[in-house]
Amino acid sequence: MSLPPGFLDELRTRVSLSQVVGRKVMWDARKSNQGKGDMWAPCPFHQEKSASFHVDDRKGYYYCFGCHAKGDAISFVRETENVDFMEAVRILAGEAGMQMPARDPQAQKKADRRSQLAEVMEQAVQFFRLNLAAGAGFAAREYLDGRGMSAATRERFEIGFAPEGWQNLYDHLRGKNVPEDLIMACGLARASSKGGKPYDVFRNRIMFPIRDARGRCIAFGGRAMDPADNAKYLNSPETELFDKGRSLYNHGPAREAAGKGQALIVAEGYMDVIALSVAGFGATVAPLGTAVTEDQLRLLWRIHPEPIIALDGDAAGLRAARRVIDLALPLLEAGNSLRFAILPEGQDPDDLIKAKGPEAMQAVLDAARPMVSLLWERETEGQVFDSPERRAALDKRLRTVVKTIRDPSIQRHYTEEIKRMRQDLFFPPRARGGWSGGKGGMGGKGGWRPRGAPEPVRASTKHSLLAMADPSAEDRLREAVILASLLLHPELVNRFVGALEMLEFADPDHARIRDVLLRTEAETTEALEAEIRRSIGGEALENLFATRHVQIAPPVRSPGNTTVAAMCIAEAMAKLKARRGAEREIAEAMEDLLGVADEGLTWRLQQAAEARNRAERSEAEDTTEYETGSNGALVSREERETFDKLLQGIKYTKGKG
């Protein structure tokens, strides 16, 4: 439907964005200025404690500095109410007292027909429910009682029964003056191949109404009462109302429950959804007899940013999980992902809840695994990697899969996580535990470190061969300086929030400390330290301040000078960014060596090498001998020789090509 010129502008003028958003959030009184229309709140689109969601009421736009959601009143209603554009406009127009323009005749005619079909479907719902309560539904009631489904639950989910016989529903609807073409268009009856009356699609089945997000019945699912029936479960055929790949069972109630903070669970079937909902897990949906589709994934993410796929722990359940992974990887975006809850083998949610209660189901959901974990398991399970060739084959498979991720940031994080798991598989870490001696704690000498791990790299040896054997050692030292400086100068955290969120930490403990800094509202060093100890333990904190490099950093050696601390943090962040950018450029160029090398590749390697050296030019002096690069940057003689050999190899490759 097209809207007349100026209608949307008038709507946005009449509607107060802060009032629309205010129905879904709690404003932060300290940061908000209602008089200027400058409002702040925790973001309604992702889980957070701080107020990073900003509404500019005068301009009519919102923006989240955490998940980067942005838009106006219409987009906010679309996302939070899970409705399409025109429905969002209709909702806001009603609130603003504006009359929606009339539809064109063809669109109106189509809408009228869909309304007629929906009315016929409601009549079918009532017919099936009456039959479940009547004598014809005795066996069906006994079956449901045996499954533990109470009368109240049957009423809540509008469970019904399609009696035996070929034309029961058809005759009932025709007796209500429903035209035959509407019955057929609803998918409730099929034409007879023998020239007789149309016959009912559903016969001798327990019936589950399938409703869309707006609550309209669009289809049915039927469970056969006869064990010999060819199809245990049968869904309505696709119709003008029903698109199986774009629909979810229990969509509307699940969306409402998820909006109140519940985790969104994706179960396998109708009975699983009902069992979970009755047990208190109201935000539960199910695909309709098929594997999850791309459209259903997008529907799920509109309801919740991280749905939990709950699957049986048998081989079929794991295969289903792995199919979903392949489907989801290209669609991933920041803030949209999946987790997988694998149930005990041989049990579905209904079995588990009956045997051990909702607490057992909650424990399974709490243990839900990220996609990268199942992806790694799929590629490594049952295999032996006792040769370089087998390891190379694994690397090739993983690279191929990860490259299907379109979002470059997520692809990078997957690569790093897989690299970590690969390291654990091929080079298992030594047992943790043990003190390095000396006084530990913040700013102390010595401290806790992994037993058997090498001493932290000191500033005076950062350019030695030992340090260069671990390229990430310098990164970890810079990360430690950044975090230690922020801990001792909490007032700087807000200034560096954006850079902290984007920073990729080489040390997992450093990443966890960063996460605490971003989410906590503590405003003193003591409060931050207490929050870190409470959240992740004291070891990470003690390790952070144990290295000599951190202890001699100006913000740590002389705390209290905010200006010096800010400069030190900014410099360390810049060096990290420059070095990692250079490494990525070199890695990409090295990949190109598998193809045809050219002058452009040679130039890229030269530039990457010189960029890296520029980033390290201000490091502490040591005994390394230096030369001058083509752009005036200092280049260690060892690095110059390494790159000269590399470039010679490239030129040789060109000559052979």
Automatic annotation (TrEMBL):
Belongs to the DnaG primase family. The keyword Nucleotidyltransferase applies. PANTHER family: DNA PRIMASE (PTHR30313). Keywords: DNA replication, DNA-binding, DNA-directed RNA polymerase, Magnesium, Metal-binding, Nucleotidyltransferase, Primosome, Transcription, Transferase, Zinc, Zinc-finger. SMART domains: TOPRIM, ZnF_CHCC. GO terms for cellular component: cytoplasm; DNA-directed RNA polymerase complex; primosome complex. It comes from the Bacteria. PROSITE patterns: TOPRIM. Contains an N-terminal zinc-binding domain, a central core domain that contains the primase activity, and a C-terminal DnaB-binding domain. HAMAP family: DNA_primase_DnaG. It is an enzyme of class 2 (transferase). Transmembrane segments: none annotated. Its EC number is 2.7.7.101. RNA polymerase that catalyzes the synthesis of short RNA molecules used as primers for DNA polymerase during DNA replication. This is DNA primase. The lineage of its organism: Bacteria, Pseudomonadati, Pseudomonadota, Alphaproteobacteria, Rhodobacterales. It comes from Pseudoruegeria aquimaris.
